């Protein structure tokens, strides 16, 4: 009944336009020829398709209806059909001509001025902010209105922000993040963060939205920084990774000038949104020339919390990384994270950004940055070891939390001849920068990639494929990792500690010790 369908659609559109509410049209229908032209639906639905075959087509049934009304003759109907057929044939023939190539330009309207493809070397701006602005934002974040009743346990949290503004206390991870979001908003860039417990932070580290303990009123701290600032939205989302990430990705398609972020409660949970990553985030530029600045925040790190709370599966993102389609980063300091988020908005290269964020490092006494680190500079793709010297007998290359474990072990053993270099950006791989950082070390200095993940996971195989066994024809690349496993991590906290110590023993042991067979950790050529 085409007229009934048309009437319902018009009604739905009028309702949506008038009341600004969603509409669901429930329409019963069937496929006359099955799910494609080569299908034979009667193989599996013989009775249903016997009934369908007895029905007239939509055109025939509707024509009978019109003929009964007397408003149309059969000859007029045939003339309409012939004209439409001729029009479609003409369009079809035009489409088959060699010179008929549709011009698709997705860089129009809101996307004008942004670009995809390879990264440009000259598009790497300084992402610092003036001291006065940084101090003002931190003081605002450390204050609440006089009539707001703050939870007593959060008093020290806000006082710490005031100390950071005065330069008396370094910034932790959450403060570096808040300064990044706040400075973008003050700079006129709208900010959006959605995730499970994102307002408070899964690990009670963020507290961007405060709750009055007497009346339940909320105070959005990032929306009271400056009277001319852009809006900041921080929303707690339901436990539907696929649905929420899909929505935020769609939001990012029409919002290139802002920062759109989705945060998983634990990075492991991103596997419930894998279809969005595969179908859209990693491939949309190649398939449809659609760019996105979508940011995925994935808490990642092995703390003995079990196989569902340890790994955001970096190997899966690195598997689909090609043609500069995404960015994969593992910042190891609050300042690095701050510069990374600001870079995502300030420069004009728009690519989805996957950030492996920490858990235990959120309150690690060494995972802090001085206020000066936020006032100038940019995100560094590789961080050198400023303590080691060119005479080091070994270079350990790593990313993320394992760096602090390696650093603590080196200090405990009072070793000064093992260097630790941090690879902060995994993709696009900063090979030239890595070459420069490694240049001071002698040729044939052993280079070990150290990771917490099992050998068949993490970044090892990606790095081996990218750098080869002989990086820059100067070093020999090997790995130190947990033994290959079907599960990302052990479920035993005791077993985790034993495995972690074995990794550290291998990292700082002699070459003979590294060659010995191990049970749960391995050094591999």
How would you describe the overall organization of this protein?
By secondary structure, the protein is of the alpha/beta class. It has a seven-stranded mixed β-sheet, with helices on both faces. It has a six-stranded mixed β-sheet with strand order 9-11-10-13-14-15, with helices on both faces. Helix 5 packs across helix 7 and helix 7 runs parallel beside helix 12. It is globular, with a radius of gyration of 29 Å.
Question: What can be said about this structure in brief?
Answer:
With 525 residues, this protein is an alpha/beta fold.
- Beta-strand residue percentage: 5-15%
Give the biggest sheet.
7 strands, mixed
Shape: globular
Low-confidence stretches: none
The residue fraction in helices comes out at 25-40%
Question: How are the strands of the largest sheet arranged?
Answer: 4-1-5-6-8-7-12
Could you say which structural class the secondary elements and strand pairing correspond to? Answer: alpha/beta
Terminal residue distance = 69 Å
Radius of gyration: 29 Å
| Overall pLDDT score | 94
Number of DSSP helical runs: 17
What's the number of extended β-strand segments? 15
SSE layout and pairing:
Layout: H1 2-19, H2 46-53, H3 58-69, H4 74-96, H5 131-141, H6 155-165, H7 173-186, E1 191-195, E2 209-211, E3 218-220, E4 232-236, H8 241-253, E5 259-263, H9 274-281, H10 284-288, E6 295-299, H11 314-319, E7 327-329, H12 334-346, E8 353-357, E9 382-383, E10 394-398, H13 402-413, E11 418-423, E12 425-427, H14 431-438, E13 446-454, H15 460-467, E14 476-482, H16 493-508, H17 511-515, E15 521-524
Helix pairs in contact: 5-6, 5-7, 7-12, 8-9
């Amino acid at each position: 009944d085409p007229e009934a369908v048309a009437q319902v659609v018009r009604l739905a559109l009028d309702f949506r336009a008038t009341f600004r509410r969603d509409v669901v049209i429930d329409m019963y229908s069937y496929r006359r020829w099955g799910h494609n032209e080569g299908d034979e639906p009667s193989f599996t639905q013989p009775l249903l398709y016997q009934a369908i075959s007895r029905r007239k087509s939509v055109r025939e049934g509707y024509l009978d209806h019109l003929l009964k009304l007397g408003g149309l003759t059969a000859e007029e109907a045939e003339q309409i059909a012939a004209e439409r057929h001729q029009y479609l044939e003409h369009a079809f023939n035009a489409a088959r001509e060699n010179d008929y190539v549709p011009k698709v330009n997705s860089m129009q309207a809101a996307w004008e001025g942004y670009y995809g493809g390879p990264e440009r070397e000259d598009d790497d701006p300084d992402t610092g902010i003036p001291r006065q602005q940084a101090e003002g934002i931190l003081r605002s974040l450390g204050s609440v209105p006089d009539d707001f009743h703050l939870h007593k346990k959060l008093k020290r949290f806000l006082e710490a922000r005031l100390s950071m503004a005065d330069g008396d206390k370094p910034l932790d991870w959450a403060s570096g993040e808040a300064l990044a979001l706040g400075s973008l908003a003050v700079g006129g860039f709208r900010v959006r963060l959605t995730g499970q417990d994102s307002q408070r932070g899964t690990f009670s580290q963020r507290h961007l939205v405060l709750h009055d303990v007497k009346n339940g009123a909320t105070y959005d701290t990032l929306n009271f920084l400056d009277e001319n600032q852009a809006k900041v939205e921080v929303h707690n989302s339901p436990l539907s990774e696929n649905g929420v990430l899909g929505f935020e990705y769609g939001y990012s398609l029409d919002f290139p000038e802002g920062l759109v972020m989705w945060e998983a409660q634990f990075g492991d949970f991103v596997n419930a949104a894998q279809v969005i990553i595969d179908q859209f985030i990693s491939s949309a530029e190649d398939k449809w020339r659609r760019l996105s600045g979508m940011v995925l925040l994935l808490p990642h790190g092995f703390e003995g919390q079990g196989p569902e709370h340890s790994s955001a599966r970096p190997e899966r993102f690195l598997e689909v990384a090609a043609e500069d389609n995404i960015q994969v980063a593992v910042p190891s300091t609050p300042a690095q994270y701050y510069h990374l988020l600001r870079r995502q908005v300030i420069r004009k290269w728009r690519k989805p950004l996957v950030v492996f964020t920490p858990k235990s490092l959120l309150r690690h006494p060494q995972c802090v940055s001085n206020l000066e680190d936020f006032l100038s500079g940019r995100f560094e793709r590789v961080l050198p070891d400023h303590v080691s010297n060119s005479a080091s007998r070994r270079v350990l290359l790593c990313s993320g939390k394992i760096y602090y474990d390696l650093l603590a072990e080196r200090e405990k053993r009072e070793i000064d001849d093992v260097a630790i270099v941090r690879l902060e950006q995994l993709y696009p791989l900063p090979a030239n920068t890595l070459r420069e950082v490694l240049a001071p070390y002698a040729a044939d200095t052993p280079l070990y990639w150290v990771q917490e993940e099992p050998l068949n996971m993490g970044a090892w195989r990606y790095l081996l494929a990218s750098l080869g066994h002989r990086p820059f024809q100067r070093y020999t690349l090997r790995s130190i990792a947990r033994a290959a496993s079907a599960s990302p991590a052990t479920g035993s906290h005791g077993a985790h500690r034993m495995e972690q110590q074995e990794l550290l023993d291998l990292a700082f042991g002699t070459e003979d010790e590294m060659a010995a067979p191990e049970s749960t950790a391995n050094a591999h050529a």
